[in-house]
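Try it yourself: sequence plus nicotinamide-adenine-dinucleotide, in.
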Amino acid sequence: MRIIVAGGDGFCGWPTALYLSELGHDVTIVDNLVRRKIDVELMSGSVTPIATLDERVAAWREVTGRTIGVRIGDLNDYEFLSGVFRDVKPEAFVHFAEQRSAPYSMIDREHAVYTQSNNVLGTLNVLYAIKEYAPDCHLVKLGTMGEYGTPNIDIEEGYLTVEHKGRQETFLYPKTPGSFYHLSKVHDTNNIYFACRMWGIRATDLNQGVVYNVRTPQTELDPRLANRFDYDGIFGTALDRFVAQAAVGHPLTVYGRGGQTRGYINILDTVRCLQLACENPPEPGKLRVMNQFTQWFSVNQLAQTVKRVGDGMGLDVTIEHLDNPRIEREDDHYFHAVNTSLISLGLEPHMLDDQTVASILELAIANRDRINQSLICNSPTWK
Ligand code: NAD
Ligand code: USQ
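Structure, out:
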């Protein structure tokens, strides 16, 4: 298939582009490289050294003989985007290209406005480009489990059937997200659902949980293919971040009481889910929603796991409960979400085990000189 991977220079997008390319798909990466500019803004960076996008695709060609196309530009530049659609004629558009950090979106007004305009308007442009230039193209859009929030009832895959005064209707599942970033995904979902109903577009919304792990078999083929590994308080995500903290002897930063429970997924399963979604498109006019996570954990459970593995490797890992910079439920709250759609398409989940944590820890230890401890607690507060 001809597949565009928008955001293909990022943490999820790069290994996905490699995986789809290895499977024989004709992949074009679209990215404006803003994530690398945000590293400069935050004076942060990846634990792993990452090559430039040009070096990455050249290395992929050298090592595998396969070509990945690259188009540098912004989804919010419609002239650029429509040119890409006219040239590539995509059959699937995999959309990772958003500002994806909740703390970044909560820094101040400018960052909230940037996040929502970048994400919501970027996706709106993609919907128009599909309508105008590739009406059969399947939009495979990354949403997030955090769109749902932490309701006290089971989380379904996208929709909820409600009975009211003896009558029944099925709606998009009610959402109570926890940041301006997570809200941008809810706004996207509403726009995509509308475009499907009005224009007959086919789309899949993948509500992904927090991704952990860094490496895939493809990124391991050459050092220039290495994936990024965020650890700072703004872009680092729970498990990978705890592992980086353990590697440098920093106490693991559990926010508040640590009962916050979320869905998690190994990056090895992320790339497979994207393949399954692309190769099994829904009918025109349909917004299919799939919850893309494999297990759920509380932050306390993750910290305990990292401590056990780190201590087993001879480190003395400690856990600290910090004042929570976020406003969220941190008691032992209810969290029960359905995730059967991707499994029924053929996903065989990689469950979190000590070996995986140990391998991320080895990677962090090998690069510990690149971890700036002053960036570990740089999250803004939500107030
Ligand atoms: P990332 O920041 O590493 O990558 C995003 C990429 O998109 C970057 O390379 C960036 O330069 C590019 N980009 C951003 N805005 C763009 C625009 N307007 N035009 C073109 N390119 C643009 O993020 P990631 O961790 O790879 O996440 C990818 C997607 O998956 C995001 O939509 C995110 O919300 C979603 N997601 C991520 C996680 C996670 O744990 N990382 C979990 C659930 C969902
Ligand atoms: N947390 C801590 N200590 C830390 C970091 C995080 O206790 O040092 C807690 C947070 O308070 C939160 C939970 O861990 O309750 C998860 O935080 P996170 O930073 O790992 O994840 P989040 O902000 O939700 O965002 C990440 C990605 C985002 C994606 C989301 C999936 O950055 O792109 O959408 O995971 S989900 O959480 O399912 O919405």
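One thing you can check immediately is this: The domain at 2-375 is CATH 3.40.50.720 (Rossmann fold).
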